[in-house]
Amino acid sequence: MTPEQQQRCKDWYARFIAMRGYAWETRGQCINERKYIKWLVAKYTDAQLETLHDYLFNRHFKWSKPDFKFKIGAYEVYNEAPSVIQILKAGGKNGSNGSNPPQGNAPPTGSSEYGGRPRQDFTGAGKALRQQSR
């Protein structure tokens, strides 16, 4: 790891503590946080990390909720980064829950949800009922 990356790790560790509002209490939590920060710094630029954290804090369906937004740390950013990047590349035009609308499995369009034909046409009973009513 280069001295520049080491300094970035120190800076991001302090930033995560400031953004979260508290430091981890146990040694294991601190070690894990630093490990994930090293991986993030090696993979992403500062601007990308800022964008990822901002998306999670303000727009993500889970992490933007008041109960979770102040629990975002390096692990959460590392874990959610691939899906957030995919959403941001798509233009962020997703539902409020952060997922894309279904494609390909939608029912056919028409006057009803069955492609313009009434449901009874799909069952043998529908035809028999129409003949009995005449």
Report on this structure.
The chain has 134 residues and is mostly helical. The chain has a domain at 3-89. It has helices at residues 3-20, 27-43, 46-58, 74-89, 124-133. The longest helix has 18 residues, at 3-20. Residues 95-112 have low confidence and may be disordered.
Concise structural overview:
The protein has helices at residues 3-20, 27-43, 46-58, 74-89, 124-133.
Q: Which characteristics define this entry?
A:
single chain, 134 residues, 5 helices, 55% helix
**Biggest sheet overview:** none
Low-confidence runs: 95-112
User: Which band does the percent of strand residues land in?
Assistant: under 5%
Provide mean pLDDT, rounded: 78
User: What is the distance, rounded to the nearest whole angstrom, between the alpha carbons of the first and last residues?
Assistant: 84 Å
Order of helices and strands: HHHHH
What best-fitting shape do the alpha-carbon axes yield?
A: elongated
* Secondary structure: helix percent: 55-70%
Strand tally is 0
Q: Compute the gyration radius: what is it?
A: 25 Å
Oligomerization status of the protein chains: single chain
Which structural class is indicated by helix and strand composition? mainly alpha
Task: Specify the number of helices.
Answer: 5
